[in-house]
Structures are given as structure tokens and as C-alpha cells.
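Researcher: Structure for this, please.
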Amino acid sequence: MPRAIRQAVAAGVKCIEHGHLIDEPTAKLLADEGIWWSVQPFLDDEDVPAMSPESRKKVMQVFAGTDNAYRLAKKYKVKTAFGTDILFDARIASRQGAILAKMVRWYTPAEALEMANADNGELMALFRVYQSLSRKAWCRRRRGARGPAVGRRQSVRKHQARRRSGQKLRGHYEGRHSLQKHDVQVSTIVCRVNAYERTSSKAWRPRKTNMS
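Model: Predicted structure, C-alpha cell format:
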């Protein structure tokens, strides 16, 4: 187990899961490299699922290493997260709170709650599972990703420019459409006048009106 952990750290992993069979030099390596350690409070109690005698023999070695794992984590101040294997067992999933309460065997209640909430949140943020940002921090990050001169105001200006362009184009279209309708009306009047002149013996003149 210590050899596998060292190989994983050398490969660039950021978090070690389980690791109950760790030795002291490897625990110190985790602390020195700033690697997270997600340890589960595995104990030989009512939360152990049913398993074959051979599997139980192997898992007892893990149970025996739980106390040592938490002792080394506290000694070297390894960044520790609260982990559980509750995904595949509905009965154990309903006991998540009871599993967290087991942490008072190695930590104070306040330390256990801080680990399960703040520390676990910090670990998940490392892998971008969940990360809350203030509005100002989000805007700063967005400006930094898109360049220093590009920000929220410039995006608004671009949107306004596109909107004005669309309105202008619509205005041009409506104006051109009105002119086309006017041209059609004028052409119709001219055609009618020409037809009247051809059929009339007298030249057509506009009717005079008395202007007062």
C-alpha cells in the first residue's frame, strides 16, 4: 500500500482515497506535497456489510489500520477529508450521520464537522465539482479569461450595437418597402394617363381650379 501511494503521488494525483495501510514516511510525504487524504472511519462494528470469510479476513487488516491512519494524519497535519463508502448500500447510506459521529474517536466534534463541511468543500473545489464565487470574483475571473480589455461593459456595448444595427436595418427595409409601394402607385397613374391620351381626341390637361 505505501508503495502504491508513492507511485500515485509521483504521477501527480491530488487526493489519496482510503490508504489505511499507510506507513509514517508516506504520510509525511503527503503532508510535504500538500496531497489530500480522504480517509474513511472503517471499524469492525454494525456498519460492516455481509461478506465472505475470505473477504472479511482481508478487510480486518484495513480496520486495524484505521487508528494508525488518523494518528498519522493528525501528527503530520495532512489535509484530511471525511469519506464514506455509502454509494452501493442503502442501509449504510441512511447511517451517514452515525458514521460522521464516529470521527469523535480521533477528533473533537467541532473538528469533525469542519472536516465534513469546510474541508470537503475545499477538496471538491479543487476538482471543480462545486465552487461558489462572489459576483466580483466571478467578474474578475471572467475578465481575466477573456483579456484585460474585455469585460462586462464591453459585452453590454456589443449587445447594444447589435441591437441598433438590427433596428437600422429594419428601418431601411420598411423605408424601401414604402418607396416601392409609392413607385407602383405613380407608375399606375402614368399608365392610366397615357392610355387616356391615346383614346381621347383632345389632349388631356389637368383640370383648372379657382384658387381663392
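Researcher: Any notable elements?
Model: The mean pLDDT is 77. The radius of gyration is 40 Å.
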